[in-house]
Structures are given as structure tokens and as C-alpha cells.
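--- STAGE predict ---
source: upstream dedup step, 1 unique chain passed
mode: sequence only
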Amino acid sequence: MRSTTLVAFLLLTLVGSDALAQRRLVVRPARNVDHSDRDPYLPYGGVTLSKGGEPPKPVQAPAGWVNVNWPGFRYVRDTGTAEVFLQMSGTPSYKVKRSAYRVVVKLEKTQAHLRNTFRPVITRHFPGAVSRFRVRKRKNGELWLDIRLRYARKPIVQVKNISPYTYLVVSFPRGRQYRIRRVRRWKRRRIGNVNPNK
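--- STAGE serialize ---
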């Protein structure tokens, strides 16, 4: 009896609140909004190198060291290239390690002074090979640019000087999408005499 009353009361409450909400709901068009982003193929490609501007709270790097100001990502729709880049105060020395779905760029004698630089950047909603990336702090003054890939792709690493900053750009051009199968060896288990007719 109590459960039936409770269910009936909840249904009446939900129906009544929906009816009240529908009466109060007013939709107004947005004012002063740029509607250029209605293209279904992601017109926002990410940050551009030329519009980087002044980094937040710039700090002078020690002699022989390089500052990482901020990481960025852009997807070039014309070429289908996904680019991950770092704005830096000078030319870095780096090494690239690559596996099937991961690319790590090891930067020597580099530092980053903002916590926001170390946060993960999720790019899986953009087309292209890059799924996410992150700058990681390692021992002995190393920073790692850790890039995770959606599918296997060979990176192109370049250093570009756009005054007054230097950009380390890791590009993943469009190509045939393929996934590497991981071979697993299964052990056969002997179950015994199983008769499917029984």
C-alpha cells in the first residue's frame, strides 16, 4: 500500500514539475555571437603558431636552459595534419622515442614554471592521429612531451623560429589509418569429454 502510494506521488510530482518547467521555459536568441563555427567539419583547428603572443608570467631561463612557455595543438584541415607544439624561449636539444601508439620527445635542460603546462590536453575529438598529449617533468632537468596516438603514424619533428619565440613542432600527416594487432598466444585448456548431444 505504501509503495503504491509512493510511486503514485512520485509520478504526479514528475508530471507536475515537467508541466511547470514547460510553462516557464523561454528561449531567446543569443546576441552578439559569431556564428562562423557552424561548419560540421570543425572549423576551429586549435591554436596557430603566429598568434601565440606573449606567454603568461614570462620568466628568465638560467644560462644554457630553455623555458617551455605553453603547449599547443592544431589540426590543419587542408592537409589533414595534426600538430602538437611547444612555445619555447630558445632552441632545445631533444631526442625522439617512438613505439606503436606513443611518441615521446625528450627535451634536455628545459623547464616549465606554470602548472597549466603539465595538464593533459585531450584531442581525441579532432580528426587526425593524436588522441592526447601531456608535458611531463622528469629527473635531471628533462621534460618529456608524451603524445598518445589513435593509430600508428610516423612523426615529423621540426624546430621553427617565429620571432621572438622558438616552436618545437611534432607533425602527424594524414595517411592510411591502420592499427597494429597485438598477438596473444592462448593456451588451450582441456575441458574433458564434452558431448554436445547431452
